[in-house]
Design brief:
There is one protein chain. Helix 7 runs parallel beside helix 8. This protein is α/β, with parallel strands linked by helices and 350 residues long. An 8-stranded mixed β-sheet has the order 6-7-8-3-9-10-12-11, with helices on both faces. A 4-stranded antiparallel β-sheet has the order 2-1-4-5.
Length: 350
């Protein structure tokens, strides 16, 4: 079954297109041959100046998928196209362009920035190697990049990463990603380690850069609050499978899969009473991807699971609003969203 998320209303070819990407790792130890399907038949597209979020719990395959997009991992099957060219078939010149135009912002800023190099030095490296900018021109561009992310170049350019707070380091990481004039940035849990106020500031910086520079984002996160704040579209992964996808407004406002509702229920809310009202009966831990359950992958934790869920993989259900759901009871889930009382452990959409 092929899941594909596409830019809506753009009329343009996508900047990046992942088609039926599957990534399987061989697992050593134990008896016999074993395989871990970290990503299983996932497709999506990202348009110009668009933010697409890939969400799910730890172990859902979202980071592995991000590494495939970055060409840090080769897919076992399927392919990734950038600007219409298969990344795996790129010649040297095309690959160097891809590497310059597709950048990454990591979660761990402590290890992604060299503590022996000043902030200015870290920003000048991509200018030198990717754009051929050196000397005074590089220093001026470094100052511009720091200003773009709200940091004074006179204060921060000479500092070590060890002298910065987590939020300041993340801003520097964004500035470094922007140094190469990228068209796409993969942000892998880029704000999950930050406190709420700093997180909001960093997200605002990223949105501002998107508006001014036209950069696209692939946002990898487990936080539905972040998705709500920055994303145009969202893809929900569980054990490497797409559970639901569509526009962020539609998926978060009227979810059609119990797993999406569980993620929404887990997101912090300003009203503790409301938080209690939307609690979902999600039980147990995510199963081992080495031995996933048959049928729907979510059936061992789903409050709606019935016999068909344990034996049959759900067919893709496409709704009028463009949301795609891989659930046998997607219609029932959506019907529950319109009710004020919880139904079978599910509550109305927030």
């Amino acid at each position: 079954m092929s899941h594909e998320s596409t830019p809506e209303g753009t009329g343009r070819a996508p900047l990046l297109k992942a088609m039926n990407v599957t990534t399987v790792f061989k697992v050593r130890g134990g008896v016999g041959k074993r395989a871990l399907r970290a990503v299983d038949n996932v497709s999506l597209t990202i348009g110009a100046s668009e933010t697409v979020a890939v969400v799910g719990e730890s172990g859902s395959g979202k980071t592995t998928f991000g590494r495939v997009v970055l060409d840090l991992l080769k897919p076992t099957s399927g392919r990734v196209e950038y600007d219409g060219v298969d990344v795996a078939a790129m010649d040297k010149k095309q690959w160097r362009r891809f590497r310059r135009e597709v950048q990454v912002v990591f979660q761990d800023t402590g290890s992604s920035l060299n503590p022996r190099r000043s902030i200015g030095g870290s920003l000048e490296l991509p200018l030198r190697y990717n754009l051929g900018i050196r000397g005074e021109k590089a220093r001026k561009r470094t100052a511009q990049l720091l200003d773009m992310v709200g940091l004074s170049s006179s204060t921060f350019a000479s500092r070590s990463p060890l002298e910065l707070s987590g939020g300041q380091r993340q801003r520097v990481s964004i500035a470094r990603a922007m140094a190469s004039n990228p068209r796409l940035i993969v942000a892998d849990e880029a704000v999950s380690a930050l406190d709420v106020s700093v997180r909001a500031q960093v997200l605002q910086v990223m949105k501002s850069l998107q508006e001014k520079e036209g950069v696209s984002f692939l946002f990898i996160t487990h936080d539905l609050g972040v998705v709500r704040a920055v994303s145009d579209r969202v893809v929900v992964l569980y054990l490497g499978h797409v559970m639901e996808q569509g526009s962020a407004a539609a998926v978060l406002g009227n979810p059609s899969h119990p797993y999406t509702k569980a993620l929404l229920a887990a997101a912090p809310r300003p009203d503790p009473g409301a938080r209690e009202q939307i609690r979902v009966g999600l039980k147990g831990d995510i199963p081992s991807p080495i031995a996933p359950p048959p049928g729907c992958r979510f059936n061992t934790r789903c409050p709606l699971a019935q016999d068909i869920c344990r034996t049959t993989v759900p067919t893709l259900r496409v709704f009028d609003d463009g949301v795609e759901s891989s659930c046998h009871f997607a219609d029932e889930v959506r019907a529950a969203n319109t009710r004020t009382a919880a139904v079978d452990g599910l509550a109305p959409a927030p």
